Amino acid sequence: MTIKTNCVQLSRPEAAITGDSIIARFVGKVSRKYDIDISDYGLLHAWSVSDPEAFWAEVWEFFGVVSSQQYHQVLDSRRMPGARWFEGARLNYVDQILRYDGRLQTPAMVAILEDGTRREISWRELHRRVAGFAHTLRVNQVEVGDRVVGYLPNADEAIIAFLGAAAVGAVWACCAPDYGTSAAADRLAQLEPTVLVGATAYEFAGTVRDRRDVLAELVDRLGPRLVVTVPRGGIEITDVIESHGTRWITWDAAVNGDGGGVKLPLQTAQVSADHPLWVLFSSGTTGVPKGIVHGHAGVVVTHLMTLGLHQDLSEGDTLFWYTTTNWMLWNVVVSALLAGVTTIAYEGSPTHPSVDRLWKIVEQEHVTQMGTSPGLLQLASSAGLRPGVDHDLSELVQIMATGAPVSEALHRWTADAVSPQIPLISTSGGTDVVSSFVGGAPCLPSYLGEISGPILGVAIAAFDDAGHAVRDTVGELVVTLPMPSMPIGFWHDPGDQRYRDAYFDVFPGVWRHGDWVTHTSRGSFILHGRSDATLNRNGVRLGSADLYQVVEGACGVDEALVLGVERADGSYRMPMFLVPKAGHTVDDEAIDEIRNKLRVECSPRHVPDEFHVVSAIPHTKTGKKLEVPLKRILQGASVDDVLSVGAVDRPDLITYYVELAQRWADEEAQT
């Protein structure tokens, strides 16, 4: 399917890489060293993928990666899977952060709780607390390669616990306390952890939710030697408990060295480049979540590169990205510390006590870069917010959004309601690579409804079914060369078979990500949704995101879900589910208007067969629509076969789709 766009350019930076941006300084250094012309972004990206060994060596040097032993080669080969990066290096992720102690007067982080509690932590205090937690781990015999896991909200304790674990060479994993016992254990038990750091409660939308029972159940399921309890909502576990070989201590004891005091500077474990730093988890909507393992060096160089060259973040900046510990954006936010950036960690509802809560934080904390999701922007738009009028955003330089395609309507709303001088930068990547494939840069224009260009060092393309790169037509998003942040493997995957099956089973030697994308002749990208959720009308493939762009926000619709369902009798049904905006009714007249808009703005093929008005749409815990599991339920699959209910934000909503599948089956039986 060929994609036509109106090519409305929202921002017009200079085409040449000039000025005092970080990317300009990097280009100046590289141009002189290699005597090459990389005066614009296209040339820079072309060089970064034609000579990735040189590019990543320059990133390492330019950002001053701290290592006790230098690598002897950047990349052993360009094969996928199996490429090895920075062999011979000995380093630790945490050392990149500790170097700012005594150098910066700005805060390292600010933790904000929903109830208004604000905790500002300096670089020296961060060093002290991380050292204290690391000492606690060592006195409790936690060794290099052991696992430390968290059941924690997005606050300072989670960041400190992660850094303390990484400092001693332990492997970190975490999930938020909105997960119940089964969902949390499905993830964390895979790691057989030595230590569990758990919150006693969490607060969301004005309600404190006691999690002591879940914490106790997790201890039984995980069997850690040490449990560290983090108090919340006035709920504490104060007694030190010895039972079944498990020792319990308080958070205060843990960050103060468990009675052993704190010694500075912290001596970190020097580990190999590919030593596991953390394990992230797939959504788990279709089965046991996959544990995705990333190494120290790959994360350090990738995050320093994207923070600096793409986001232009450096010492003195403040980053606020609303996230939870379930989402890979939490890991990216923590990594802002690598660049000396002040990190804002907000724990709570994004809309409590008022729908503009996030914008208030941006104003109060003098945030220079804000990160969010299209869903939260849509919520602000639907609520009629005008943040640029109601809040002082004078220090905000740009807004970044990821998690779903950003519609043209949201681009327009941001320019109108926030500021035409504050660009909305759409990015897309994945938990799999804990970074982006496509995004923006200070020298790249922003196009309405599009993503500006490829990330440096990412050899991205859109492939047709035959494995040929195509432009201006829909294809599979692929990466043809290794990236440092690609997984070093999956947890408990001997022989890497599941890893190969996940990304390399369609195009041998090429990473297939599972997104449907158009690579335009301008170099920008348009995302159309997951390729495994593709709509197929009479052999013509359609992207769900194209329909959402037209429907959401129009005709009284707040959110929409469209599914393409191949039924057992050979029929094909394409239902759309509509959630009305607050105070609106989506009636037959509105649905007729939606049909007409889709017919005119997309094509007659884009018009769904039927419409269902529903109260809400179910998502994963990270806010993604359950397109594939719900499609399979409507095909007749059982919920247990296609969905882990604990990974869903509103499990009660699934019943509607089960009942609809049964109604369809009854109708087909009568024909």
Automatic annotation (TrEMBL):
It is an enzyme of class 6 (ligase). SUPFAM superfamilies: Acetyl-CoA synthetase-like. Residues 44-94 form the Acetyl-coenzyme A synthetase N-terminal domain. Residues 556-624 form the AMP-binding enzyme C-terminal domain. Residues 106-480 form the AMP-dependent synthetase/ligase domain. It holds the Pfam family AMP-binding_C. NCBIfam families: ac_ac_CoA_syn, PRK03584.1. This is Acetoacetate--CoA ligase. It comes from Rhodococcus qingshengii.
